[in-house]
Amino acid sequence: MEKPKYHIFVCGSFRVSGESQGVCHKKGSLQFIPYIEEGLRDRDIDGAMISMTGCLKVCDRGPAVVIYPQNWWYGNVSGEDALDEIMDALAEGKPAEKYLLK
Cα–Cα distance between 94 and 32 in angstroms, integer? Predict the structure, then answer.
């Protein structure tokens, strides 16, 4: 496998027990994966890997998405419109300022 240019992490709110029970999960973050995969293809963004994670510990600002190696942490990613803005910015090589966690 080739090293990805981008690694996109989506908080799945998984706990040590394996259960998904946090804010991000309750707000639909599990549904982000197929939408992001399609959005990356639509924007011709190659070399991206997407992973669901355990709790990212930003529950008060979830759902959360993180993009590495840029280290862009996004919060309050409320659905397709937010994901579109994040992917559009990624295609331009810049962060989506509106959703960056500070």
Answer: 20
pTM of the model as a whole: 0.91
Sequence letter at residue 48: A
Each residue of 67-89: pLDDT tens digit? Answer: 999 999 999 999 899 999 999 99
**Full set of structural domains in the chain with CATH:** 6-97 (3.40.30.10)
Q: Give the number of residues written for the chain.
A: 102
CA 52 to chain centre: 8
Distance separating the N- and C-terminal Cα atoms of the chain:
33
| Residue linked to tokens 């994901």 | 83
Task: Report d(CA 79, CA 81) in Å as an integer.
Answer: 6
